[in-house]
Design brief:
- This protein is of the alpha/beta class and about 325 residues long.
- The protein has two domains: about 150 residues, VC0802-like (2-Layer Sandwich), CATH 3.30.2130.30; about 150 residues, Rossmann fold (3-Layer(aba) Sandwich), CATH 3.40.50.
- It is about 25% helix and about 30% strand.
- The structure holds S-adenosylmethionine (SAM).
- S-adenosylmethionine binds next to helix 5, strand 9 and helix 7.
Length: about 325
Amino acid sequence: MSERRYFYHVVSPPGHDELARLEFEALTGDRAPQHPPWDERENPSDHPRLLWARAGVDVGRSAYVAECCRLLARGATLEEMLAASEKLGLRMERFHVQARKRFGTKVSSSRQIEVAVADTIWGSPDLSRPAIELIAQAHEGEWLLGELVSRTSNGWLGHEQRPHQYSSALPPRIARAMVNLVAAPGDRIIDPCCGSGTALVEAGFMGIEPFGWEINRSVAEQAAANVCHHGQAAWIVVGDGRTAKGRWDGAVLDLPYGISAERVDEVLRGLVEHALKIAKLVAVVTVDELDDLFAEQGAEILGIATMVKHNLRRKVYWVRAATA
Ligand SMILES: C[S@@+](CC[C@H](N)C(=O)[O-])C[C@H]1O[C@@H](n2cnc3c(N)ncnc32)[C@H](O)[C@@H]1O
């Protein structure tokens, strides 16, 4: 098995870090270390984290994975890291070194460190329009030197602005991460309960073809207007998501809540079961525990993220259908 030589900066606000971890896993294909559930931590981690993976991937479309860097050199001290870099005999033109304590935080003596790193490299730096970006940073008692592979474009920013707001809409950032759990550019996804179309918009921006079902006609029309507002295109059907016919790479299912108690089991069950029949990968956001339902359906749970906001605790299930 190859070594984990790519480090990623994952940035997530309080309550989102488990979903961020799942998005990292979906993008890189590597597992990330588990943390205690978010609301049981002594120091809720609202700060960026560094995770390692075997593959270096483009994180341009990511909701939470801010950067991917390829490890060049490391050392227990700054001097050891500089010696390791020197030993590589790196030749680079138009490079730029940035020193920081962790993502987003400069070190106090950053200028000296940047110059010291640059002195280990053959070639000329370019501070204004670099072709190569190098990151020198302290992390858990060692120094790392990495070359930037990709950076997120924070593509979800500004997507809250749309003609139609919807009280039960997902925040665009969460919708984007859920789409990334089940699809990649070029894929087709279905949102069987698309509401105001948040996931459809995010998918469209990422080059993923979106299909939405929505039982309420006026809400479906609002979804269409929101999608058009963002210059995207989506297929939107007014109808019951349990009747969607076709086959999709992924499904994003934001389960309705607030429907009458006696119908809850039947409708929600039907929506989940149907999504598992028509899509290979499914991301479900729900206030319910669905572990037993997935087990019954022979689906494999790839990850679960708990999201906590005020008193609302919701789960995102990331699942591979038995028919995948
Ligand atoms: C939680 S909201 C989805 C919100 C959506 N993710 C957004 O960001 O706007 C659930 C939606 O499912 C719709 N719905 C409920 N039962 C449905 C069904 N059987 N088929 C399709 N849509 C359904 C509701 O009208 C509601 O708009």
